[in-house]
Amino acid sequence: MAKILKTKEICTNIWEFIIEAPLIASKAQAGQFLILRLHERGERIPLTLADWDPEAGTVTLVVQAVGKSTREMVERFGEGDEIRDVVGPLGLPSEIKRYGTVVCVGGGVGIAPIYPIARALKAAGNGVVTIAGARRRDLLFWLDKLDAVSDELIVTTDDGSFGRKGLVTEPLRELLEAGRVDKIWAIGPAVMMKFCSLTASEFDVPIVVSLNPIMIDGTGMCGVCRVEVAGETKFACVDGPEFEGDKVNWDLFLARLAMYRDLEEKALEAYRATTEERL
Amino acid sequence: MTIVPRKTPMREQPPAERIRNFHEVPLGYTPEEAVQEAKRCLQCKRAPCIQGCPVNIKIPQFIRRIAEGDFRGAIRKIKEDNYLPAICGRVCPQEIQCEAVCTLGKKFEPVAIGRLERFAADWEYEAGVEIPPPGKPTGFRVAVVGSGPAGLTCAAELRRYGHEVTIFEALHEPGGVLVYGIPEFRLPKCIVTQEVENVRRLGVEIRLNVVVGRTVTVDELFADGFHAVFVGSGAGLPRFLEIPGESLVGVYSANEFLTRVNLMRAYLFPEYDTPIKVGRRVAVVGGGNVAMDAARTALRLGAEEVMVLYRRTEAEMPARAEEVHHAKEEGVEFHFLVNPVRFLGEDGVLRGVECVRMELGEPDASGRRRPIPIEGSNFTMEVDTAIIAIGNSPHPLIPRTTPGLEVSRQGTIVADDLGVTSREGVFAGGDIVTGAATVILAMGAGKRAAYAIDRYLREKYGRKGAG
User: Fold this and answer.
1) Which CATH number fits domain A2-90: 1.10.510.10, 2.40.30.10, 3.10.129.10, 3.90.1010.10?
2) Helix, strand or coil for residue B451?
3) Which residues of B320-345 are buried (b: 16+ CB within 10 A; e: fewer)?
4) Domain A101-257 of CATH type 3.40.50.80
5) What are the tens digits of pLDDT across the range A219-277?
6) Do A221 and B235 touch (CB under 8 A)?
7) pTM
8) Which residues of A touch B249 (CB under 8 A)?
């Protein structure tokens, strides 16, 4: 059981949760994730750590309410409630060292997990340029936090309602063209990570992406999170979640992500029906 | 004395009915049936069955008590050597262990030792479970990693020696392979829950959701004051065939398929959140118990045709005879001397499998005749689900995060017969040492390691204990 200490909607449909998890908080490192299960009938949900506080014994998660379980989490789990199971930290930490200038790209809800990585890279003496992108202004969050750990912060929106109009790959390309990038981190929707990787490989700059495949146990047992990297099968839960983006088989990754889309819809419908019953 | 040549049959759910539910297939003996079967035992002096049992249960003695109607005495006798009898009675491969060497079995069918063990255990649940008292407290603390058969047995045994025991389990339910791997229809989860509860009542603390190797390391367990660590972290990532198309949507590892259904209860979706998909035509690759479990689970989830593809012949199949028999009764088709070479897909989704026919050549390292592909014999089968059940690698986390722990090329922890590893104070047993094996072998390893841990603690710290 893990108690929820705080919840807050930080922008449209994206919520911040602060959860009591002292063991995880004491061990967490940038790039790792945890798995939670809301209740007895719940699924195991992998979430990349957005922040943690070893002294307070808490971890921060940022959740976008899209599927059944994430909706249920934001709609039915509030301050003081308990989450049945929380386990972590899982996966390998980001390889933090002094690279020179690093570009950190966070897209959509991926803005949250890029934050501790940018912070760690900055602390390791890197020059950090952060690019945060979202579809619209009301889907942006944590810009102040990102700004505090970056030498430069570039914000993009698809519709131009805030910052630059366009996709994150555009400023990324400009930085690469200017020739001052030694390493890139990108976290966000799979398609965004794919295109960031394509852009990076044009310039031969190494890029790390954080993959979020379907997982069940997340501890190195079930094998569903397999991804093809440089032609080899890897398991995101124990070999990742971070991989070299230019070596990922993205088409396969996208196909596997969509594996249960129809049943996910069905679960959401069934959940909506129970919500209506309650009203 | 007249000898009854055949085992007393056990009632089962009829195949046509059971393939539509997840309830247990064999229904167990009545007291009358158990007594009748127990009377078949010759009570031979030599009792080869005891040596045939990996935990050396005093088999003739417990059977004699059943024959006399002393069921309480029977279960007490079993539990002197085995803490999980309700599980072993159901999942042990008795036909290659105790029953294989039964004296009666030389001329007739052997005594149904497994069924009698199950009977005694089930009888006790009805009548009330007795928890044996733990040993005199020693003050030593032992950490047990994993709550599968090796960990549970080791923990229970360590309590008997008087040590304090904490089990660390990575998943949200205790039981390891007993809950994520073995299906409900073969080992009902309520049985596992009861057996785990008994281990708790012995005074073992079980901490769920702690991944040793991530949440804490073995080194930190020692720093926290544990005097010894037993690693029973079990099987890890599934092996794949390493052929094209293995990541197509519709290709499962048996671990994933069974974990969804067993641990996450996906067969009750959407009442439970975790989904599972099974197509019309399912191919299961492999010939062990896990392959049988996957095939029979697929049938129960509504598959129209389930085919087991095995590269050797029926004689070499490692599955328990009873599982193969049950699978056949339920309509699972077996294709022997067949091996997949490629999965075929459309838009990333599985549509078929290309196989090659095999023949058996010379015996290999396992002593079984090596299967050799017959050139030009390739053929294609239309399938929309494939389940790969060809084994697992050892669980990777502890070998990767414990300095000084010797690991084999296969990734298993190197340990002797008593579970002693290269690292002082660290013991290991079960699949993490042997590679994928059986529940009872893991239990045997846990039991022997508990003995070795007790000996180690007393030798290192002297007889007086930690206090």
Assistant:
1) 2.40.30.10
2) helix
3) bebbbebbebbebebebbbbbebbbb
4) yes
5) 988 999 999 999 889 999 999 999 999 999 998 899 888 888 888 888 888 888 887 76
6) yes
7) 0.93
8) 255-256, 258-259
